[in-house]
Amino acid sequence: MTISTSRVFRPDPESIGKREEHHRAVFEARRDAPSTVTVAVEGEIDASNSRELAGYVQRHIADAKHVVLDLRLVDFLGTAGFAALHNINVICCGSDAT
Length: 98
Description:
There is one protein chain. This protein is α+β, with helices and mostly antiparallel strands. It is built from two helices and four strands.
């Protein structure tokens, strides 16, 4: 018998479309379809804000089936940014989002 715990985030419908600034980056989520959330990232992702990026994505995809991470406006992606991308992948797999 396996027992485990998991955090459940309920998205705040008011937070979709609100931009968040973290150090040298800006994150913004939008709902493109009823089951699709796009998170746009602008600026630099490094050790100063990579955890915030993963947390932002986790807060906004709780009921999404499809997640799009728009990195077109990212100027710099440090090694911590790659770790954030991995964490986001783990988050999506845990919530059955693709």
